[in-house]
Amino acid sequence: MACPVQCLLRGLCTVALILLYYVFSIGITFYNKWLMKGFHYPLFMTLVHLAINFCLSALTRKAMQCWTGKPRIILNWTDYLYKVAPTALATALDIGLSNWSFLFITISLYTMTKSSAVLFILFFSLVFKLEEPNPFLILVVLLISSGLFMFTFESTQFNMEGFIMVLLASFIGGIRWTLTQVLMQKSELGLQNPIDAMYHLQPLMFLSLFPLFLYNEALSLSSSEKLFRVTELSPLLYSLFTLSVGGTLAFGLGFSEFLLVSRTSSLTLSISGIVKEICTLLLAASLGDKMSVLNWLGFAVCLCGVSLHVGLKTYYSRNKVPSLRQLSSKTSELEMPLLLNDSSKRGDSAEDERDDEDEEQEIFLK
Fold this sequence. Notes:
Elements: H1 2-36, H2 42-68, H3 77-101, H4 107-114, H5 117-127, H6 136-152, H7 160-185, H8 194-216, H9 218-222, H10 233-263, H11 266-286, H12 293-320, H13 324-328, H14 350-365
Helix pairs in contact: 1-10, 1-11, 2-3, 2-8, 2-10, 3-7, 3-8, 4-7, 4-11, 5-7, 6-12, 10-11, 11-12
Subcellular location: Membrane
InterPro entries: Sugar_P_trans_dom, TPT_transporter
Main location: membrane
């Protein structure tokens, strides 16, 4: 009788984690879009989010250290600047351009265009030899590309400037996720735990995005009544509060992804991500985004391509490694589960590292 009860509890836990992931992921998308209607400084907003993420990850690391009694990893300057900086730069540009695009495009177009990130991830994973060439990848590329074309064709709410921004963000996102996987798989760096990775990435991401903010928004923001030229205290507090809520949602998204992957598998996160995009499109359409039958058909074709890619990764991963569960212990909340790779090269110490990570993961679930 214990087995069915355990299966039921495990199933309920998985559903709860998926719902938590949906709340943060869908929530931050609509929240940022809503905030951009009255606060036209997406780069400054992103910088505030990065600062909040760094503070929360630092507090989490401190709590984990107190709980386990083990010191957290701190990289030396050489590794930090030469190995972490490229990932931080790509991540900062991806997030910054994505938030920037909300000034111009609808949530439906944003969601659909960001789905094309799979194409760039595949391209860069082949360049970095993280992905083995496969004839089915051609079909994946054709499905996603044609779906994106059908979705944007004669769209009544299409904006070229915003579309180019989010497409560029998807391109940089391909570099970002590929570099993230390379970074997370370097066991000598000790950044397998995503909280440690977030802690090290946020400062460099802030510094990478700050010059672009100075060039594009600093002068305008300095003369804006939203922050620096307020005549009353209440508008300032309101702006700081709304920005802080967005930063908390951003941290919660990464944290929920980590929990979902650590307690289930990266395949669960992949499938949940596909369903999440469908929910986002339906919710956006119900809130006013105009979509034709051709747009919906294009979205369906694109999802078929993404689903085929996830299915292929699952099939080949199961033929290479004992289980997806073992792979998931090395997946970070920053890493999209589209680049699962053979973990047999990590050496005999991989089992000990998994034991340490399992001990750390229990902290979040008690």
